C-alpha cells in the first residue's frame, strides 16, 4: 500500500503506452479529482490523510478550520486522518511531522481534539494499528512509535481518556507496546516510565456496583447518567401511550439533550451517531462494566431497558400512536438501543411484538388491495423482453479482458481506471494489496474470506461505472421521461455499494442452486455458516477459471435505482406509459397482478428494469440495466412501518 503514485503510473505507461492512457482523461492531481465536490474542511482532512503537504498548506491559507471534523468516520479531524493514514511510515515520518506542525503550531489545531468516540489522535494511533501477539510486525509498531514521538513533541497527552471503552491512549494494547519497545531497544521515557501501563483496569468484587459512580470513569462525559436512574424515571407499566411517550422522551433528553441522536446514515446504511452529541448513558459500556462485578445485575438492567423502553417504543410506533415527530424521535432512540445490544435481553418478547405488527401490516395491505382494480390485469405478472443465463443481466459482451484466458493485471488496472472503479493508481494498489489477505485475517480470523482480485474486480467495475457515469445519466433521463406533474415524486436511490454487490453475486453464480438450498438450514446456524463459507471459497476457486462466475454480478440489475411514489392507480399507469416510451424495458414485475402471491407480507409494487447506455466524448460506452420502482403511497406508508418488524423476525438483531 506504500507504492509511489508516479512509479505506478510509470509501470502502466510502460505496459500500455501514452496513447492508451490519454483516453482516461484524468487530471494530474488525483487528489483534487477525488475531492473536488467536498467542502474545504473535508478537503483538508482528505489532504492530510494522503500526505499532501502542499494542499494542506493551501487549504489552511484559504481559511479551512484546522479542527474540522467529518460527519462520518467517527468525526475524524485532519490530525486523526493523518495519524491513522497508511501513507506514512518510518521513511517519511518527516512529512507527517510537517503536517502536524502546520496544523498545530502554525494554525492552532487542538492536538488532543477528541472524535465522536472520545479518541484523540494518540488513541487512534494505537487503537487502530497494534493488535494481536506482540511478535507481530515489530517494524510496524516501531513506525507508530515514531509517530508517537511527533505527537508527544507537539503536546499530545497520554492521560486523556476516551468514551469507548474508557481507556487512555495506550488502552488494552499496553503490553504489546511494552514488548515492542523492549525488542526494538527503545526507551519508555516517551510515555513517562510506568505510564506505559495506562489502560489496565482493576475491578473489585464489591456488591451494588454502579458504573456511573466508579471514580475511574467519572467526568468522562457531562453528567454521566446511571442506568438505575432510568429505572427510577420510567414506570414498569404505563396507563396509556401518551404517558409512555412523555416518559421516554424525558429519558431521551436526559441522555442526549435536544440534539438529534444520529447525524444520518453512512454509505453502508448504518446510522452514524451525531458527533455533536454526548451520549451520557453509554448503555453497552455500563452493562459491560456492571457485568464484571455482578452479572445478574447487568442482566436485570438490560432486561429493564428492554421492557420499559425498547418494547413500549415499538408498540407505540407499530400501533401508530403519537405524532410523526414523536414517532421519529422514539424510533431513533429504539435504533440506539438496538445498537447497544438491548434486543438480546428481550429477544422472545421482541419477536412476539414484531409478529403482531407484521400480521397487522398484512391485514392493512389486504384492505388496500381490495380497492385496486386496473393494475390487477394491466400487465402480465412477469414479462421479460430478453433473458440470458439468469433472467435479465447486464450486457457483458465487452468484458473479454475478464476472460481467464485473457487476464492481465495491467489491462485490468486500465479498465478499472477507465470505468471509475478506482479513481487513482494509489487506490488500485490498495485494492491489489488488500486481495492478498492480512495476517489478522489468516491467523486470527480464518473464517473470514480474503479478497480475491479476479473474483472481486467486476464488482468494482460495475459500481464504478454506475457512480462515475451511468447513475447521473439514468436519473436525468428519468426526470425528462416522467410527466412534469409527477417529477417531484421521483426518489433517487443510492448506488449499491461494492460490499452489497459482492454479497448478492452468489445468487447468480454457477453455485446459485446450492446457495438457495442453504436458506432451509438456518435453524442450524453453525452448519449453515460453515457450509456457506465452504461454498464461498468454492466460488472464489471457480473464478480463477470460469468466466460466468467472474461476471456473476451481471445478474444484479438494481445497482442504479429510483422509485416514484404515486397517489393512485391512474397516476401509476400514466407514469408507466411515459417511461415505456423513453426506455427499453427488459423486464416488468407487476406485484399488483391478481396472480401474484404475497402471502406473509402483503406488500405490492411494480418494478421495471430499464436498459440505460451512455457514451462519452472519448468513445467510452457504459451499458447497464437499472431498476425503477413504481409504488402507491398507501402501500409505501405501511412498508415503512413493517420494515423493522420484518428485520426482527428475519433475525437481523439476533
UniProtKB/TrEMBL annotation:
<dbReference type="InterPro" id="IPR036770">
    <property type="entry name" value="Ankyrin_rpt-contain_sf"/>
</dbReference>
<keyword id="KW-0175">Coiled coil</keyword>
<dbReference type="Pfam" id="PF12796">
    <property type="entry name" value="Ank_2"/>
</dbReference>
<protein>
    <recommendedName>
        <fullName>RelA/SpoT domain-containing protein</fullName>
    </recommendedName>
</protein>
<dbReference type="InterPro" id="IPR002110">
    <property type="entry name" value="Ankyrin_rpt"/>
</dbReference>
<feature type="coiled-coil region">
    <location>
        <begin position="511"/>
        <end position="538"/>
    </location>
</feature>
Amino acid at each position: 500500500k506504500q507504492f509511489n503514485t508516479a512509479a505506478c503510473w510509470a509501470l502502466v505507461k510502460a505496459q500500455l503506452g501514452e496513447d492508451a492512457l490519454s483516453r482516461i482523461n484524468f487530471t494530474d492531481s488525483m487528489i483534487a479529482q477525488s475531492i473536488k465536490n467536498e467542502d474545504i474542511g473535508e478537503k483538508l482532512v482528505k489532504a492530510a490523510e494522503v500526505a499532501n503537504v502542499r494542499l494542506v498548506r493551501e487549504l489552511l491559507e484559504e481559511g479551512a478550520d484546522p479542527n474540522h471534523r467529518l460527519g462520518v468516520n467517527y468525526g475524524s479531524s485532519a490530525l486523526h486522518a493523518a495519524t491513522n493514514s497508511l501513507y506514512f511510515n518510518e521513511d517519511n515520518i518527516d512529512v507527517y511531522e510537517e503536517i502536524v506542525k502546520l496544523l498545530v503550531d502554525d494554525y492552532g489545531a487542538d492536538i488532543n481534539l477528541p472524535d465522536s468516540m472520545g479518541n484523540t489522535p494518540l488513541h487512534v494511533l494505537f487503537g487502530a494499528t497494534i493488535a494481536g501477539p506482540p511478535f507481530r510486525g515489530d517494524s510496524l509498531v516501531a513506525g507508530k512509535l515514531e509517530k508517537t514521538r511527533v505527537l508527544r513533541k507537539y503536546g499530545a497527552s497520554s492521560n486523556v481518556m476516551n468514551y469507548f471503552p474508557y481507556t487512555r491512549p495506550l488502552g488494552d494494547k499496553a503490553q504489546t507496546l511494552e514488548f515492542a519497545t523492549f525488542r526494538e531497544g527503545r526507551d519508555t521515557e516517551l510515555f513517562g516510565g510506568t505510564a506505559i501501563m495506562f489502560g489496565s483496569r482493576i475491578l473489585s468484587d464489591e456488591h451494588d456496583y454502579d458504573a456511573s459512580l466508579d471514580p475511574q470513569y467519572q467526568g468522562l462525559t457531562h453528567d454521566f447518567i446511571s442506568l438505575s436512574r432510568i429505572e427510577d424515571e420510567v414506570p414498569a407499566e404505563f396507563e396509556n401511550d401518551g404517558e409512555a411517550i412523555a416518559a421516554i422522551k424525558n429519558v431521551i433528553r436526559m441522555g442526549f439533550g435536544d440534539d438529534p441522536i444520529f447525524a444520518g446514515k453512512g454509505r453502508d446504511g448504518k446510522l452514524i451517531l451525531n458527533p455533536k452529541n454526548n451520549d451520557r448513558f453509554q448503555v453497552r459500556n455500563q452493562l459491560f462494566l456492571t457485568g464484571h462485578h455482578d452479572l445478574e445485575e447487568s442482566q436485570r438492567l438490560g432486561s429493564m431497558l428492554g421492557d420499559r423502553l425498547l418494547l413500549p417504543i415499538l408498540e407505540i410506533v407499530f400501533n401508530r400512536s403519537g405524532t410523526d415527530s414523536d414517532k421519529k424521535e422514539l424510533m431513533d432512540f429504539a435504533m440506539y438501543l438496538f445498537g447497544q445490544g438491548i434486543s438480546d435481553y428481550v429477544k422472545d418478547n421482541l419477536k412476539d411484538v414484531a409478529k403482531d405488527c407484521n400480521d397487522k401490516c398484512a391485514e392493512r395491505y389486504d384492505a388496500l388491495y381490495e380497492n385496486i382494480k386496473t393494475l390487477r390485469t394491466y400487465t402480465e405478472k412477469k414479462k421479460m423482453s430478453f433473458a440470458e443465463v439468469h433472467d435479465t443481466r447486464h450486457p457483458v459482451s465487452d468484458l473479454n479482458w475478464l476472460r481467464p484466458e485473457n487476464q492481465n493485471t495491467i489491462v485490468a488496472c486500465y479498465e478499472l481506471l477507465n470505468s471509475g472503479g478506482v479513481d487513482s493508481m494509489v487506490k488500485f494498489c490498495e485494492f491489489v494489496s488488500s486481495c492478498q489477505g492480512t495476517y489478522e485475517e489468516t491467523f486470527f480470523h480464518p473464517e473470514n474470506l480474503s479478497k480475491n482480485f479476479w473474483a472481486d474486480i467486476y464488482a468494482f467495475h460495475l459500481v464504478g461505472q454506475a457512480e462515475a457515469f451511468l447513475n447521473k445519466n439514468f436519473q436525468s433521463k428519468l426526470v425528462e421521461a416522467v410527466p412534469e406533474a409527477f417529477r417531484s415524486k421521483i426518489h433517487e436511490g443510492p448506488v449499491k455499494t461494492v460490499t452489497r454487490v459482492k454479497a448478492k453475486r452468489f445468487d447468480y453464480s454457477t453455485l446459485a442452486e446450492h446457495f438457495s438450498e442453504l436458506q432451509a438450514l438456518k435453524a442450524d446456524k453453525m452448519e449453515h455458516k460453515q457450509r456457506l463459507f465452504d461454498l464461498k471459497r468454492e466460488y472464489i476457486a471457480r473464478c480463477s477459471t470460469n468466466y460466468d462466475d467472474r461476471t456473476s454480478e451481471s445478474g444484479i440489475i438494481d445497482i442504479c435505482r429510483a422509485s416514484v411514489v404515486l397517489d393512485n392507480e391512474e397516476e401509476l399507469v400514466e407514469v408507466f406509459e411515459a417511461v415505456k416510451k423513453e426506455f427499453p424495458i427488459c423486464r416488468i414485475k407487476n406485484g399488483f397482478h391478481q396472480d401474484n402471491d404475497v402471502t406473509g407480507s402483503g406488500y405490492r409494487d411494480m418494478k421495471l428494469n430499464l436498459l440505460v447506455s451512455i457514451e462519452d466524448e472519448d468513445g467510452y460506452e457504459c451499458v447497464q440495466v437499472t431498476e425503477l420502482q413504481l409504488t402507491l403511497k398507501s402501500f409505501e406508508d405501511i412498508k415503512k412501518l413493517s420494515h423493522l418488524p420484518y428485520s426482527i423476525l428475519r433475525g437481523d438483531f439476533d
